[in-house]
């Protein structure tokens, strides 16, 4: 049997209609998982599902807002979710606008906190009882060096949400460590969906490996954390940043 194969597992990836989430969906599907592609936008989710199916993989769309607990519960209902990748983030339904913290209004914090922390709480809380009952489960949080280290680029609320998600998942991991369920986070560094080409070219020069991260870099680590082979890896926040310090 090949290592890190996921045949017979159902994986829910939130925010998988674009960017990093799509990359995770592609990798987990290639490893044999039945992938549930979540997104706020049904057309985006359907497009990803179509691509996966065209490549011979098993996938279906799940349209809901991770910040709406009742919507999460209705969508998942009694479905057995083996693997949850909490990828939905950034500003949620709203595009995040970088601004200095002192120049923001508390109302502007709600969106980033709701999706980056609240969404993780909602989805994890919904799938966890089934994982515990079945004695097997994998919960993965996609967080950020902005949360583990902090950055001065005007995204303080985003940083707070990501930091909160990492702390939440570490505590949940310890609660379920003897139940066959592992819970980890991945702290991303600079990724290929950051800014335009001129900006990304400049950023890449600051990374020890000389390049930005890709969706498939994230997907590969998710595939390991989702596998049977990762059963002794839990309660960790793992940097994925090309050698840059993110924690």
Task: Give a written overview of the molecule.
- This protein is an alpha/beta fold and about 250 residues long.
- The protein has one domain (about 10-240): Rossmann fold, CATH 3.40.50.
- Helices cover about 40% and strands about 15% of the residues.
- The protein has eight helices and seven strands.
- Strand 2 (about 35-40), helix 2 and strand 3 form a beta-alpha-beta unit.
- Helix 1 crosses helix 8 (about 215-225), helix 3 packs parallel to helix 4 (about 110-135) and helix 4 runs parallel beside helix 6 (about 155-175).
- The model has no long low-confidence stretch (mean pLDDT about 90).
Number of strand segments: 7
The helix/strand series, from N terminus to C terminus, equals EHEHEHEHEHHEHHE
Name the beta content range: 15-25%
Spatially, the strands of the biggest sheet line up as 3-2-1-4-5-6-7
Helix content: 40-55%
* CATH homologous superfamily descriptor: NAD(P)-binding Rossmann-like Domain
CATH class: Alpha Beta
Query: Poorly predicted ranges (pLDDT <50, ≥5 residues)?
Result: none
**CATH fold title:** Rossmann fold
The number of domains is 1
